[in-house]
Amino acid sequence: MASHTCSSNSSFQSSFTNKLKSIQFNNNRHFPPNFPYPRSLTPPSASLRVDVGAPKARVETGKKTKEVIEDEAKFLVGTYARVPVVLEKGKGCKLYDVEGNEYLDLSSGIAVNALGHGDDDWLKAVVDQAGILTHTSNVYLTIPQVELAKRLVGSSFADRVFFSNSGTEANEAAIKFSRKYQKHTCTEGKAPATEFIAFSNCFHGRTMGAVALTSKVQYRTPFEPVMPGVNFIEYGNAPAAVELIQQGKIAAVFVEPIQGEGGIYSATKEFLQSLRNACDEAGTLLVFDEVQCGLGRTGHLWAHEAYGVFPDIMTLAKPLAGGLPIGAVLLTERVASSIKYGEHGSTFAGGPLICNVALAVLNKISKPNFLSDVSKKGLYFKELLKQKLGGNPHVKEIRGVGLIIGIDLDVPASPLVDACRNSGLLILTAGKGNVVRLVPPLIITEQEIEQAADILSQTLHVLDANNSK
Q1: At residue 459, does pLDDT exceed 80?
Q2: Cβ-Cβ contacts under 8 Å for 119 (sequence gap 6 or more)
Q3: TM segments (predicted)?
Q4: Catalytic position from the list 94, 180, 249, 318
Q5: Is the dihedral of CA 205, 211, 217, 221 positive or negative?
Q6: Do the beta carbons of residue 266 and residue 400 sit within 8 Å?
Q7: 289 catalytic, yes or no?
Q8: CA 416 – CA 422 distance, rounded (Å)
Q9: Are 405 and 265 in contact (CB under 8 A)?
Q10: pLDDT at residue 7 is higher than 80
């Protein structure tokens, strides 16, 4: 295994200048001309633009939007509380609805569109492979699948890869692999460990196994009984987790190095190292869920690299194919050797089209300069947000690493989300609905970061209006 170095998690204020390696802001808070941000993408000229400070009139809900909303209500299962926007096209970090309104996209399809919309290399990978071979099932071998597995193994702790179609499917596979590993390694006369540990504020998916590992009660209750044997512990409470692991009943510990849906909470090195040590002693597997925080979003290829602590299994999904559905489970040979033919599988997973696109995404994001830029842009974004929002009494904390940022509020965030959308900015909530989640495409430019910070600053007053009602 290649050696890895651990980077410090010192406070942003004390390390900002050092982390930027002497890059200084001028009076306009711009980076120097040679700052390496991504190539700008020009949106379609027919679309309305949002100019911060002097916003142009936005087209209200029109006939086409109303028709789509009515049809959706008629024909789709009502599992989503959608906003009344019908998106039609996108380029770079911009999206456009059917009325011609332009939006700066800081949701990126819930941290999926890491290269933004319509990236040239992404599109070429789609078109090239679609014209050659799209789907074969896993009865046969294909070159893109094997090449993607080789690249993932070569850039991580892992020895083997299993492909799925989504993050929740990746976590389902990790659950099954953990159970099988414990059964495979259990000595005669001893019952194998079958229970799991997950943590407060965690989110691992919505299928029956993954939802059982998800802390939000409202996600589990309608479908009970879900998979038994899951123990929830406070995120960061190493002593409680270690004590439970030492009892010998835990098959695996599932933990997100940075919680996305849970509210943008980061683990500490001490917490993850304690889990690693306890798992090693007890024969328990350590699973890192990097479905949202992995593949470059933190400025490291994998979020756990910053801590110098490595898992037995890692689950990936969201950004891996830049907008097309894929999941992956990365695991060590020790775990993989317990899995036999026919014990798990998928018809669509790891198809040549998806894997060829994922290779193009991985090749781009894994470049050191690309990852360095994500770190720099994340630091710049947090600094701007602290300058523009930090003095507001509703803003409790601005936290995160790289381009996964949370604005913790003392009131519900939905009025701010709505106001930002009406001003041309798409953002998400997290936590208990009180955290603004910013997960823009990793190609976002300095100018777009400034535009987003300005819109957030100019719409923050809606929290006062909402709170006074």
Answers
A1: yes
A2: 322, 364, 443
A3: none
A4: 318
A5: positive
A6: yes
A7: yes
A8: 10
A9: no
A10: no
